[in-house]
Design brief:
- With about 60 residues, the chain is an all-alpha fold.
- It has a domain of about 40 residues.
- Helices cover about 50% and strands about 0% of the residues.
- The chain has three helices and no strands.
- It is globular and about 40 Å long.
- It starts with 17 loop residues before the first helix and ends in a 7-residue tail after the last helix.
- InterPro entries: Phageshock_PspC_N, PspC.
- Keywords: Cell membrane, Membrane, Transmembrane, Transmembrane helix.
- It is a single-pass membrane protein.
- It is found in: Cell membrane.
- This is PspC domain protein.
Length: about 60
Protein backbone atom coordinates (compact mmCIF):
# COMPACT_ATOMS: atom_id res chain seq x y z
CA UNK A 1 0.00 0.00 0.00
CA UNK A 2 1.43 3.36 -0.99
CA UNK A 3 1.22 6.39 1.23
CA UNK A 4 -0.90 9.32 0.03
CA UNK A 5 0.78 12.24 -1.70
CA UNK A 6 1.63 15.09 0.66
CA UNK A 7 2.43 18.70 -0.17
CA UNK A 8 5.67 19.94 1.40
CA UNK A 9 7.95 22.91 0.80
CA UNK A 10 11.02 21.54 -0.90
CA UNK A 11 14.56 21.67 0.48
CA UNK A 12 15.68 22.46 -3.11
CA UNK A 13 14.45 26.01 -2.78
CA UNK A 14 15.23 29.37 -4.31
CA UNK A 15 13.24 31.44 -1.81
CA UNK A 16 10.75 29.48 0.28
CA UNK A 17 10.51 26.14 -1.49
CA UNK A 18 6.84 26.58 -2.35
CA UNK A 19 7.17 26.34 -6.15
CA UNK A 20 9.56 23.39 -5.95
CA UNK A 21 7.20 21.64 -3.53
CA UNK A 22 4.20 22.24 -5.79
CA UNK A 23 6.18 21.05 -8.80
CA UNK A 24 7.14 17.89 -6.95
CA UNK A 25 3.53 17.32 -5.92
CA UNK A 26 2.24 17.74 -9.50
CA UNK A 27 5.28 15.95 -10.96
CA UNK A 28 6.46 18.80 -13.21
CA UNK A 29 9.70 20.74 -13.54
CA UNK A 30 10.18 23.37 -10.77
CA UNK A 31 11.25 25.97 -13.33
CA UNK A 32 7.87 25.72 -15.04
CA UNK A 33 6.09 26.30 -11.73
CA UNK A 34 8.30 29.31 -10.94
CA UNK A 35 7.63 30.83 -14.37
CA UNK A 36 3.88 30.31 -13.89
CA UNK A 37 3.97 32.12 -10.54
CA UNK A 38 5.86 35.07 -12.08
CA UNK A 39 3.59 35.29 -15.15
CA UNK A 40 0.46 35.22 -12.98
CA UNK A 41 1.94 37.94 -10.76
CA UNK A 42 2.66 40.18 -13.76
CA UNK A 43 -0.84 39.64 -15.11
CA UNK A 44 -2.29 41.02 -11.89
CA UNK A 45 -2.95 37.70 -10.21
CA UNK A 46 -2.63 36.96 -6.54
CA UNK A 47 0.30 34.56 -6.91
CA UNK A 48 2.55 36.59 -4.61
CA UNK A 49 -0.07 36.54 -1.86
CA UNK A 50 -0.70 32.82 -2.44
CA UNK A 51 3.06 32.16 -2.29
CA UNK A 52 3.41 33.99 1.04
CA UNK A 53 0.43 32.20 2.55
CA UNK A 54 1.72 28.81 1.40
CA UNK A 55 5.19 29.64 2.73
CA UNK A 56 3.62 30.05 6.18
CA UNK A 57 1.12 27.18 6.07
CA UNK A 58 2.79 24.35 4.11
CA UNK A 59 5.27 22.36 6.23
CA UNK A 60 8.88 21.96 5.14
CA UNK A 61 10.00 18.63 3.72
CA UNK A 62 11.50 16.39 6.37
CA UNK A 63 14.93 14.92 5.76
CA UNK A 64 15.23 11.23 6.52
Amino acid sequence: MTSPKRLYRSKEKKIGGVCAGLADYFDIDPTIMRVLFVVIAFLGGASLLAYLIMWIIVPEEKSF
